[in-house]
């Protein structure tokens, strides 16, 4: 067990009178134990106990070759799993359950333990994961540095005969070459009007002179995700296209400059959104400004107009405003930022200024 992380959650549980909690999110289990498994339909959970008597319920199908520092309760497909789990729950107490705990296990467990009160402890876990420790910060820096390299690779290798799907294939091969373990989300490489869809799917399009090219990619290194976006132009962009780009770039800078402890996340969103609106493109900025990231590309918390949570040291989130002109083009620029003790550290170092590629 990673005791410093576990103890933070236990302290929050104590404040709410929760003596035990079942955590079933595989990424939260990894966060607490260093063991990551995809259980599929099988039961998989850590039982956190106020007295330190923690358990991992693990199907014998999944091999475990290291000591995790907690008791392992081995289960099999033919066991009465609900009865086994119930035997480890203190009767009549408040029992925490996380937000993804499967109903096929939760409902029978509630029937088995009618005197227990079941409560959602997701926020206790998620807000702990939100504040990265020093080990996590360094892993996020490394993951983002590799993603910078990959993004530059994509930009350098787009030609007039390279389709969006071809470029995705080249990216995946390059990720493997530099030691990235997988993608944190399906890569978005979108030319021209395909970029007007913020989640445009790569297709057979070839870049045309004057088109914008959105490169939104993320990889996984040592279990931690990266995520970034750069927009470049293929040959002769129009003055208006360059103006749209510069508006988005300035919005990114304004949002980033605001980041420091105590600043509300909604105010960072407003710094980006209000500037784009002031320039006449507010209706074309159609999504929130950012999201938290770590073991998963999208973790609890976001940078949106409704989130009044304040920045705290250790938070890592994206700042990614965009302008999307239907049938024509899209521009998005995205960096990951780390809230420090007195300000901000931008994890992505790759140039985000105006760039034109494909010119002779």
From TrEMBL:
Q: Which residues form the Peptidase M24 domain?
A: 138-341
Sequence ranges assigned to domain Creatinase N-terminal in this UniProt record: 5-130
Which Pfam families does UniProt cross-reference here? Answer: Creatinase_N (PF01321), Peptidase_M24 (PF00557)
Q: Which domain of life is it from?
A: Bacteria
SUPFAM superfamilies on file: Creatinase/aminopeptidase, Creatinase/prolidase N-terminal domain
**InterPro entries membership:** Creatin/AminoP/Spt16_N, Creatinase/aminopeptidase-like, Creatinase_N, Pept_M24, Peptidase_M24B
PANTHER family for this protein: AMINOPEPTIDASE, AMINOPEPTIDASE YPDF
Q: What is this protein called?
A: Creatinase
Name the source organism: Gemella bergeri ATCC 700627
Record lineage = Bacteria, Bacillati, Bacillota, Bacilli, Bacillales
């Amino acid at each position: 067990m990673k005791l410093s992380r576990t103890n933070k959650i236990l302290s929050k549980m104590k404040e709410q009178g929760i003596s035990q909690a079942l955590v079933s999110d595989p990424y939260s289990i990894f966060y607490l134990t260093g063991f990551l498994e995809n259980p599929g339909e099988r039961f998989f959970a850590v039982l956190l106990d106020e007295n330190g008597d923690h358990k991992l319920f693990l199907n014998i199908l999944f091999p475990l070759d290291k000591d995790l520092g907690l008791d392992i309760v081995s289960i099999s497909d033919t066991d009465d799993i609900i009865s086994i789990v119930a035997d480890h729950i203190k009767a009549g107490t408040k029992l925490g359950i996380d937000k993804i705990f499967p109903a096929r296990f939760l409902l029978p467990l509630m029937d088995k333990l009618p005197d227990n009160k079941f409560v959602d402890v997701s926020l206790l876990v998620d807000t702990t994961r939100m504040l990265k420790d020093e080990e996590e910060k360094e892993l996020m820096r490394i993951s983002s540095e590799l993603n910078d390299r990959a993004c530059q690779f994509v930009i350098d290798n787009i030609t007039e005969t390279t389709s969006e799907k071809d470029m995705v294939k080249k990216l995946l091969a390059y990720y493997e070459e530099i030691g990235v373990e997988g993608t944190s989300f399906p890569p978005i490489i979108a030319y021209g009007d395909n970029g007007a869809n913020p989640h445009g799917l790569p297709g057979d399009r070839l870049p045309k002179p004057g088109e914008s090219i959105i490169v939104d990619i993320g990889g996984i290194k040592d279990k931690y995700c990266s995520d970034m976006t750069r927009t470049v132009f293929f040959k002769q962009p129009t003055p208006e296209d360059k103006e749209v780009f510069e508006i988005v770039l300035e919005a990114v800078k304004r949002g980033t400059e605001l980041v420091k402890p105590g600043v509300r996340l909604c105010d960072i969103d407003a710094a980006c959104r209000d500037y784009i609106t002031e320039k006449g493109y507010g209706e074309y900025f159609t999504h929130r400004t950012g999201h938290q990231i770590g073991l998963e590309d999208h973790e609890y918390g976001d940078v949106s107009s409704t989130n009044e949570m304040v920045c705290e040291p250790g938070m890592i989130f994206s700042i990614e405003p965009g302008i999307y002109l239907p049938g024509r083009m899209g521009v998005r620029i995205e960096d990951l930022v780390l809230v420090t003790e007195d300000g901000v550290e931008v994890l992505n170092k790759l140039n985000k200024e105006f760039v034109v590629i494909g010119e002779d």
